[in-house]
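Reviewers asked in the last cycle whether our approach scales beyond single polypeptides. To address this, we selected a multi-component target totalling 456 residues and predicted its structure end to end. The input consisted of the following lines:
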Amino acid sequence: MITHPRTEELAEAVAGWIEQIRPSLDPRNAFLARVAANAMATIGRELTQGPAAEARAVELMKGLLGHEAGFMELNSELCARIRAGDLTVETPGLLAALQVMASDQIAIDQPRYRHEGSAA
Amino acid sequence: MNSGVTTVDVLAALPRLAERLGGAGARLADAERLSGGASMETWAFAIEGAAGREDLILRRRSAPFDPESARSVSLATEAALIRATGANGALVPTVRHVCDEADGLGEAYVMARVEGETLGRKIVGDPRFDAVRGKLARQCGEVLIPIHATAPPANVQLKVSDAAGELDRYEEVYRGSGAERPILELAFQYLRRQLPSPVEPVLLHGDFRNGNIMFDPERGVVAILDWELSHIGDPAEDLGWICTNSWRFGRPDRPVGGFGDYADLLAGYQAAGGRPIELSRVRFWQMLGSLRWGVMCLMMYRSWSDGVERSVERPMIGRRVSETEADLVVLLEQGL
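The resulting structure, written as structure tokens, was:
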């Protein structure tokens, strides 16, 4: 492995180039180019913020489910237990944990999204 | 039925259509594809003929896949619904022509162009709408009445669905997607325990939200567009969908479309002759709306991963599931 250029820097460079050529495109492709630039930005954020978000999700799910496991396994089990009705909105700590996980994910996917309950 | 539709050369077909609609000698004056929907194309064009200039809109199906294909109606049905609701006083554009094979445009229809703004972000934030913005939520309640009071035309087949039916449908799609999302699971579980009491079903627009409504800076609502998700169901469904936060365009503090308050929406609906609707019932459908949009985003992603529609737009819409989760987790905390 190498130290530089970092992967997120490659994503940033591609996004920059897309922005540069965007004005020369027809409306449909200009729209898709903006989507593509946004995708590169999402990749950049996932590279820098994703590992910490996943580690935090694992810790929270371990707390809810009471045992150790990897992210995928814990996530599947959490879904199954909610589906079965073992965990509900009344379960202590469930909504608080889900709120942290949702907030970490939206910070990667759409950091400017103003979710329900945000102030004016 | 949709295969091959995408290969249609619209610009080549429009001059023929211009002559058909405008009479001999009529010619196509302008034609421009407007940016917009992922599965629908909208074209603005004009005809110049003996009777003068006529500004029109062509709406046609362009994508072979539609995330709501189990629900969406044909464009011919859409045109029939616009005509029927328009005859009952609904604010809709005039349908000028429903395309047939002779037009070579695939599934499409033509309507008169209405002047106004449909971009949700503009309605919510553009100073041009500052003066009228405070009246829009009430108007949105009022303009639903002639729609909900229209008897569905006899020649169209519409799906009938209630809250439990909607949850079943979206849960089936979610399970089929293979995604495992704890917040969506909890939303399904919670909403199933909060099902509203049965109500007499009515004709719904089915996609009544900021973005599908044309507004004028002085008059407010001028036309209700995009009828492809019309069906029969709980009137509160149409009121709840316009309150879903994904359609508030960055103003979560204004629950109706990012421009108004619940009380005005409900008051407008009732004042125009609608049956009183409890706020908790609207909030139920609003929350189901977030869940519905989350599942639709997953389907958009699936259409890409299955190779049906390879546009970069599709997997990026798939990343919007987390916006619905961020909304749902707050709604689950607040309750209805």
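Chain A has a mean pLDDT of 96. We regard this as preliminary and will revisit it once experimental data from Aim 1 are available.
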